[in-house]
Amino acid sequence: MTSGMALIHHTTVTPSKVELLAGWLPTRPWYQGGRGTPVLEKSGGFRLDDPAGEVGIEFMVVTDTGSPEPGVYLVPLTYRGAPLEGAEDALVGTMQHGVLGKRWAYDGCHDPVLVAELLGLIGGIAPAMAQSITDARDHEVTRSHTGSPFDLDGFTPRPTDDQDGTHLPTPGGTVLHIHRVLESVAEHPPLPRQGALGHVATGWQGPDGTRQRAVLMTLLDA
Protein backbone atom coordinates (compact mmCIF):
# COMPACT_ATOMS: atom_id res chain seq x y z
CA MET A 1 0.00 0.00 0.00
CA THR A 2 2.86 2.34 -0.68
CA SER A 3 1.68 5.24 -2.73
CA GLY A 4 2.69 6.09 -6.28
CA MET A 5 1.95 9.30 -8.11
CA ALA A 6 -1.29 9.68 -10.08
CA LEU A 7 -1.17 12.15 -12.95
CA ILE A 8 -4.18 14.50 -12.96
CA HIS A 9 -5.40 15.24 -16.50
CA HIS A 10 -7.23 18.55 -16.92
CA THR A 11 -9.48 17.59 -19.81
CA THR A 12 -13.10 16.94 -20.78
CA VAL A 13 -15.12 14.05 -19.33
CA THR A 14 -18.47 13.16 -20.95
CA PRO A 15 -20.82 12.79 -19.21
CA SER A 16 -19.37 14.65 -16.24
CA LYS A 17 -18.92 12.94 -12.90
CA VAL A 18 -21.75 14.91 -11.28
CA GLU A 19 -24.03 14.03 -14.22
CA LEU A 20 -23.32 10.35 -13.63
CA LEU A 21 -23.97 10.75 -9.91
CA ALA A 22 -27.24 12.61 -10.47
CA GLY A 23 -28.70 9.44 -11.95
CA TRP A 24 -27.08 7.07 -9.48
CA LEU A 25 -27.54 8.75 -6.07
CA PRO A 26 -31.36 8.43 -5.98
CA THR A 27 -31.00 4.63 -6.30
CA ARG A 28 -29.10 4.41 -2.99
CA PRO A 29 -30.91 3.58 0.28
CA TRP A 30 -29.04 6.37 2.12
CA TYR A 31 -30.07 9.10 -0.35
CA GLN A 32 -32.26 11.68 1.40
CA GLY A 33 -33.46 13.81 -1.51
CA GLY A 34 -36.87 13.85 -3.15
CA ARG A 35 -38.12 12.02 -6.22
CA GLY A 36 -36.72 14.48 -8.75
CA THR A 37 -33.23 14.40 -10.20
CA PRO A 38 -30.78 15.97 -7.73
CA VAL A 39 -28.98 19.17 -8.65
CA LEU A 40 -25.42 18.36 -7.69
CA GLU A 41 -22.27 20.41 -7.37
CA LYS A 42 -18.83 19.14 -6.53
CA SER A 43 -17.88 20.62 -3.15
CA GLY A 44 -14.60 18.92 -2.28
CA GLY A 45 -12.85 15.65 -1.61
CA PHE A 46 -9.45 14.04 -2.00
CA ARG A 47 -7.67 11.25 -3.86
CA LEU A 48 -5.58 8.21 -3.06
CA ASP A 49 -2.92 6.80 -5.36
CA ASP A 50 -3.02 3.28 -6.75
CA PRO A 51 0.57 1.96 -6.43
CA ALA A 52 0.16 0.16 -9.77
CA GLY A 53 -0.94 3.39 -11.47
CA GLU A 54 -3.94 1.71 -13.13
CA VAL A 55 -6.98 2.74 -11.07
CA GLY A 56 -8.11 6.29 -10.30
CA ILE A 57 -9.30 6.66 -6.69
CA GLU A 58 -11.37 9.65 -5.62
CA PHE A 59 -13.44 10.48 -2.55
CA MET A 60 -15.87 13.11 -3.80
CA VAL A 61 -18.07 15.34 -1.66
CA VAL A 62 -21.15 16.55 -3.54
CA THR A 63 -23.93 18.89 -2.45
CA ASP A 64 -27.51 18.49 -3.64
CA THR A 65 -28.57 22.12 -4.04
CA GLY A 66 -31.97 21.19 -5.48
CA SER A 67 -33.43 20.13 -2.12
CA PRO A 68 -35.00 22.59 0.34
CA GLU A 69 -32.30 21.50 2.81
CA PRO A 70 -29.10 20.92 0.80
CA GLY A 71 -27.80 17.42 1.40
CA VAL A 72 -24.08 16.66 1.39
CA TYR A 73 -22.96 13.22 0.27
CA LEU A 74 -19.68 11.31 0.29
CA VAL A 75 -19.06 9.20 -2.81
CA PRO A 76 -15.91 7.06 -3.02
CA LEU A 77 -15.26 6.35 -6.71
CA THR A 78 -12.81 4.35 -8.78
CA TYR A 79 -12.11 4.91 -12.46
CA ARG A 80 -10.91 1.99 -14.57
CA GLY A 81 -9.89 1.44 -18.18
CA ALA A 82 -11.82 -1.85 -18.34
CA PRO A 83 -14.76 -3.38 -16.44
CA LEU A 84 -14.09 -4.73 -12.94
CA GLU A 85 -15.03 -8.41 -13.02
CA GLY A 86 -17.86 -9.32 -10.68
CA ALA A 87 -18.71 -5.69 -9.85
CA GLU A 88 -21.61 -5.11 -12.23
CA ASP A 89 -23.91 -4.02 -9.39
CA ALA A 90 -21.34 -1.43 -8.27
CA LEU A 91 -21.07 0.30 -11.67
CA VAL A 92 -22.04 3.97 -11.46
CA GLY A 93 -21.67 4.47 -15.22
CA THR A 94 -19.23 4.93 -18.08
CA MET A 95 -17.75 8.13 -19.44
CA GLN A 96 -15.43 9.29 -22.18
CA HIS A 97 -12.19 10.82 -20.94
CA GLY A 98 -10.47 13.28 -23.25
CA VAL A 99 -7.05 11.68 -22.70
CA LEU A 100 -7.66 8.16 -21.37
CA GLY A 101 -10.67 7.19 -23.48
CA LYS A 102 -13.56 5.15 -22.12
CA ARG A 103 -13.59 4.85 -18.34
CA TRP A 104 -15.75 2.71 -16.06
CA ALA A 105 -16.74 4.47 -12.81
CA TYR A 106 -17.53 2.29 -9.78
CA ASP A 107 -18.81 2.71 -6.25
CA GLY A 108 -15.34 2.42 -4.77
CA CYS A 109 -16.45 0.63 -1.60
CA HIS A 110 -16.73 -2.49 -3.81
CA ASP A 111 -13.31 -2.02 -5.45
CA PRO A 112 -10.46 -3.88 -3.72
CA VAL A 113 -7.89 -1.32 -4.90
CA LEU A 114 -9.72 1.57 -3.22
CA VAL A 115 -10.41 -0.41 -0.05
CA ALA A 116 -6.75 -1.43 0.30
CA GLU A 117 -5.55 2.16 -0.05
CA LEU A 118 -8.30 3.48 2.23
CA LEU A 119 -7.25 1.09 4.99
CA GLY A 120 -3.69 2.22 4.31
CA LEU A 121 -4.80 5.82 4.82
CA ILE A 122 -6.49 4.97 8.12
CA GLY A 123 -3.42 3.02 9.20
CA GLY A 124 -1.13 5.93 8.41
CA ILE A 125 0.82 4.46 5.47
CA ALA A 126 -1.07 5.86 2.45
CA PRO A 127 -1.27 9.68 2.28
CA ALA A 128 -4.33 11.60 1.16
CA MET A 129 -3.64 13.48 -2.07
CA ALA A 130 -5.09 16.72 -3.43
CA GLN A 131 -8.17 16.24 -5.58
CA SER A 132 -6.99 18.17 -8.63
CA ILE A 133 -3.22 18.79 -8.24
CA THR A 134 -0.68 16.17 -9.26
CA ASP A 135 1.69 14.91 -6.53
CA ALA A 136 0.36 17.24 -3.81
CA ARG A 137 -0.79 16.01 -0.42
CA ASP A 138 -4.09 17.09 1.11
CA HIS A 139 -3.12 18.12 4.63
CA GLU A 140 -6.72 18.91 5.62
CA VAL A 141 -7.51 15.19 5.73
CA THR A 142 -7.03 13.74 9.23
CA ARG A 143 -6.99 10.09 10.25
CA SER A 144 -6.42 7.87 13.24
CA HIS A 145 -6.14 4.17 13.99
CA THR A 146 -5.85 2.18 17.21
CA GLY A 147 -4.84 -1.46 16.99
CA SER A 148 -2.84 -3.81 14.81
CA PRO A 149 -2.08 -3.12 11.13
CA PHE A 150 -4.67 -4.43 8.68
CA ASP A 151 -3.83 -7.82 7.14
CA LEU A 152 -5.27 -7.71 3.62
CA ASP A 153 -3.98 -11.09 2.50
CA GLY A 154 -6.92 -12.76 0.75
CA PHE A 155 -9.32 -9.98 1.80
CA THR A 156 -12.33 -9.26 -0.44
CA PRO A 157 -14.52 -6.22 0.32
CA ARG A 158 -18.20 -7.06 0.89
CA PRO A 159 -19.93 -3.81 1.82
CA THR A 160 -23.63 -3.40 2.58
CA ASP A 161 -25.75 -0.27 2.27
CA ASP A 162 -28.70 0.87 4.35
CA GLN A 163 -30.28 4.15 5.41
CA ASP A 164 -27.30 4.87 7.70
CA GLY A 165 -24.67 4.56 4.96
CA THR A 166 -22.21 1.87 3.93
CA HIS A 167 -20.86 -0.78 6.32
CA LEU A 168 -17.63 -2.48 5.28
CA PRO A 169 -16.33 -5.42 7.35
CA THR A 170 -12.55 -5.14 7.61
CA PRO A 171 -9.79 -7.57 8.64
CA GLY A 172 -9.43 -8.04 12.39
CA GLY A 173 -13.12 -8.15 13.29
CA THR A 174 -13.86 -4.44 12.82
CA VAL A 175 -16.34 -2.60 10.61
CA LEU A 176 -15.70 0.62 8.72
CA HIS A 177 -18.81 2.80 8.71
CA ILE A 178 -18.76 5.13 5.70
CA HIS A 179 -20.98 8.12 6.41
CA ARG A 180 -22.59 8.80 3.06
CA VAL A 181 -24.70 11.71 4.35
CA LEU A 182 -22.32 14.16 5.99
CA GLU A 183 -23.19 16.15 9.11
CA SER A 184 -20.89 19.12 9.18
CA VAL A 185 -19.53 21.55 11.72
CA ALA A 186 -18.35 24.98 10.62
CA GLU A 187 -15.88 26.06 13.28
CA HIS A 188 -14.11 23.20 15.07
CA PRO A 189 -12.31 20.11 13.77
CA PRO A 190 -14.69 17.13 13.71
CA LEU A 191 -14.12 14.34 16.21
CA PRO A 192 -14.86 10.62 15.78
CA ARG A 193 -17.56 9.08 17.92
CA GLN A 194 -16.69 7.70 21.34
CA GLY A 195 -15.25 4.22 21.16
CA ALA A 196 -14.03 4.59 17.58
CA LEU A 197 -10.90 2.61 16.68
CA GLY A 198 -10.14 4.85 13.72
CA HIS A 199 -11.51 7.61 11.51
CA VAL A 200 -11.04 9.81 8.46
CA ALA A 201 -12.21 13.45 8.41
CA THR A 202 -11.83 16.46 6.13
CA GLY A 203 -13.45 19.72 5.01
CA TRP A 204 -15.22 21.10 1.94
CA GLN A 205 -16.75 24.31 0.69
CA GLY A 206 -20.32 24.87 1.86
CA PRO A 207 -23.03 26.48 -0.36
CA ASP A 208 -22.78 29.71 1.67
CA GLY A 209 -19.01 29.93 1.19
CA THR A 210 -18.07 28.72 4.68
CA ARG A 211 -15.66 25.86 5.21
CA GLN A 212 -17.55 22.80 6.45
CA ARG A 213 -15.99 19.75 8.13
CA ALA A 214 -17.12 16.26 9.05
CA VAL A 215 -16.00 12.77 9.93
CA LEU A 216 -16.28 10.75 6.71
CA MET A 217 -15.65 7.27 8.10
CA THR A 218 -15.53 5.62 11.50
CA LEU A 219 -13.88 2.29 12.38
CA LEU A 220 -15.70 0.37 15.12
CA ASP A 221 -15.73 -3.10 16.66
CA ALA A 222 -18.04 -5.43 14.82
Automatic annotation (TrEMBL):
Region annotation (Disordered) maps to 142-173
Any one GO MF annotation of this record: kinase activity
Coiled-coil features, chain-numbered ranges:
none
| Pfam families referenced in this protein's UniProt entry, alphabetically | Mak_N_cap
Superkingdom of origin organism: Bacteria
Which residue windows are transmembrane per the record?
none
Q: Where is the Maltokinase N-terminal cap domain?
A: 24-111
Q: Which UniProt keywords apply?
A: ATP-binding, Kinase, Nucleotide-binding, Transferase
**What is the name attached to this protein's record?**
Mak_N_cap domain-containing protein
Naturally occurring in which organism (per UniProt): Actinacidiphila bryophytorum
